[in-house]
Amino acid sequence: MLKEFRDFAMKGNVVDLAVGVIIGAAFGGIVASLVSDIIMPIIGSITGGLDFSNYFTGLSKAVTAGNLADAKKQGAVLAWGNFLTLTINFLIVAFVLFMVIRGMNKLKRKDAAAPAAPPKPTREEELLTEIRDLLKKA
């Protein structure tokens, strides 16, 4: 059973998947930093420092707090601002991934469109060409 598991784990697809997951996690960190450290501050400055993540609606009369963390301690809240922020983050991540995949597809198309070099003539064809050239001279 151990040998069978080792054979399964070492198959090309499983290793490729593991590499993809690791690279995806690293790429996810880069994109998360792009969103939280670059894009969202720009959006915040455009909207006058608006931070959607702290918007909520209390679902009970006991919720009187002004920020989401304290409101959650007081009772049930509908944290629609946090949902909106995560939705914006998702759309930005999806767009960035779309652009990366689009760029990769363009590179693949360029590689596929490049014409292949004509095959080198065989030894037989070279000899026939030499014979033809000699007959032309004679």
Beta strand count: 2
- Biggest β-sheet: strands ordered side by side in the sheet: 1-2
Shape: elongated
Count of helix runs: 5
First CA to last CA: what distance? 77 Å
Q: Indicate the percent of residues in helices.
A: over 70%
Radius of gyration: 31 Å
Record the SSE blueprint.
Elements: H1 2-9, H2 12-46, E1 57-58, H3 68-74, E2 77-78, H4 80-113, H5 123-137
Antiparallel strand pairs: 1-2
Describe the structure.
A two-stranded antiparallel ribbon has the order 1-2. The protein is elongated and about 110 Å long. The model has no long low-confidence stretch (mean pLDDT 83). By secondary structure, it is mainly α.
What attributes characterize this protein structure?
138 residues; mainly alpha; 2 strands; 72% helix; 3% strand
Question: In a few lines, what is going on in this structure?
Answer:
This protein is 72% helix and 3% strand. The protein has 138 residues and is mostly helical.
